[in-house]
């Protein structure tokens, strides 16, 4: 992947309303405001419905908001700045995972998130046959699908169990149902998979590095979420173009959310989990 340059940012102000629901009644909780406005969503993903994108029409705003209702803590913990930063970080990560951008792309490379819904030309069936807890279904493959590019049977299995469907027997649903696709991405973001913390806890400040983390230079920040998502391939490699792409999306999105990125954006000096 080529090294990208940062996209220019339009000068406008977008107001996003967040509501803390910890002390609200059940009826108020059900009416909780969206974690992002539709206008801002469409500004972030300027080209998701471009004819050049294989996922054209698959990632509507309404599907994302519907999925967030199953994860009430997402974008809803900490100060408003913390909430905005978490949502921006999540959307940046799924943007890189599904990017259709290139260095000279219209509106910059970081305006082309959510362009794909399935891995292109997978080189594996992503079936770990040694994992007996989440056995692969005959004839099924577990390549990257959805916004987070959910991969491997040991991720499809627990995601489906948490979300209430048999994802091992029907992995294709992740690239056929946009609400479920977003739910699998949010499940991955919100769920601790020891020794990995959840990306959610990292971004809201609830994660405390262990002794092993400190020895591996796994410092808290956006870079640690990259380590959680794909550290084995991308981290510990200063200047990796994939990591720079993730940072590029996050930097653009944080500006549009009117929030700082926080420290430790990359994982170039971190050991993977």
UniProtKB/TrEMBL annotation:
Keywords: Disulfide bond, Signal. It comes from the Eukaryota. Residues 1-31 form the signal peptide. It holds the Pfam family Glyco_hydro_19. GO terms for biological process: carbohydrate metabolic process; cell wall macromolecule catabolic process; chitin catabolic process. Disulfide bonds join 53-115, 127-136, 235-267. GO terms for molecular function: chitinase activity. Residues 180-190 form the Glycoside hydrolase family 19 catalytic domain. The active site is at 97 (proton donor). This is Glycoside hydrolase family 19 catalytic domain-containing protein. It comes from Kalanchoe fedtschenkoi.
């Amino acid at each position: 992947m080529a090294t990208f340059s940062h996209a220019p940012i339009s000068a406008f102000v977008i107001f996003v309303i967040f509501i803390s629901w910890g002390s609200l009644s059940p009826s108020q909780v059900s009416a909780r405001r969206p974690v992002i406005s539709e206008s801002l969503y469409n500004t972030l993903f300027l080209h998701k419905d471009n004819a050049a994108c294989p996922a054209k029409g698959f990632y509507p705003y309404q599907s994302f908001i519907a999925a967030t209702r199953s994860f009430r803590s997402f974008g809803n913990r900490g100060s408003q700045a913390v909430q905005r930063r978490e949502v921006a970080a999540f959307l940046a990560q799924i943007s890189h995972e599904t990017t259709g951008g290139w260095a000279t792309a219209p509106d910059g490379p970081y305006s082309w998130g959510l362009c794909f819904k399935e891995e292109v030309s997978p080189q594996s069936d992503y079936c770990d046959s040694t994992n007996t807890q989440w056995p692969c279904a005959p004839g099924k493959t577990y390549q990257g699908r959805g916004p987070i590019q959910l991969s491997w049977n040991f991720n499809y299995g627990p995601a489906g169990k948490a979300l209430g469907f048999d994802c091992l027997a029907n992995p294709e649903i992740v690239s056929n149902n946009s609400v479920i696709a977003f739910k699998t991405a949010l499940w991955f973001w919100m769920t601790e998979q020891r020794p990995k913390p959840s990306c959610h806890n990292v971004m809201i400040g609830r994660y405390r590095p262990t002794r092993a983390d400190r020895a591996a230079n796994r410092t808290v920040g956006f870079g640690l979420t990259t380590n959680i998502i794909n550290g084995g391939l991308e981290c510990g490699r200063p200047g990796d173009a994939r990591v720079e792409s993730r940072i590029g999306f996050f930097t653009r999105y944080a500006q549009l959310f009117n929030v700082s990125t926080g420290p430790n954006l990359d994982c170039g000096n971190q050991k993977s989990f």
